[in-house]
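During the practical work, I worked with a single protein chain and the tokens that describe its fold, as given directly below.
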Amino acid sequence: MNAMFRLIPREEKFFDLFEQQGTNIVAAARVLEELVHDYPNAKAKAEQIKDLEHAGDTLTHELVKKLNTTFITPMDREDIYALACRLDDVLDLIDAVADRLLIYKIVKPTEGCVEFAKVIVKTAEATDRAVRCLRTLSPYYHKHGVEVNRLENEADRLLRDLLAGLFEGVDPIEVIKWKELYETLESVTDRCEDVVNVIEGIMLKMA
């Protein structure tokens, strides 16, 4: 561990807030998976996700406020801000998926949508584990980052396969709806990858 890091007064609140946000992301991802498996209750599940997204917004505001009122931060200010924003982006996109399933009046999620939800849960869990490495600068962050990258690549392949099959459909309106939904689902894993990239940058600076 960097000697300078050991000398900096520990402001644990930043780590607390990041970890709380990681918990929110995992919870929202799991509710999204429940939503696609229990679609008759989609509206109630979407409301749960909305509540988690609102809680995430509150945490983001608290992080920014803490950043602006803390004289010595445990890592670079721009990294704290970038990580707060990227975590918030993940929650926003999970919420966007749930919203669009209802707004587009989707009758039933496709098998591809269900598969995407499963990948998102795994990606959210690996992202959360990477976030929890920050507090102690645990080298295990790299293992979790590799897993997020693998899952993001899996989501990329899934998106390509689903879009290829989608354009064989005959209803152009359904094609438009599902193209948008699949791309939003895939974007969740992209933003998770952004999170672990920020964490990797922090870890390299602090090593």
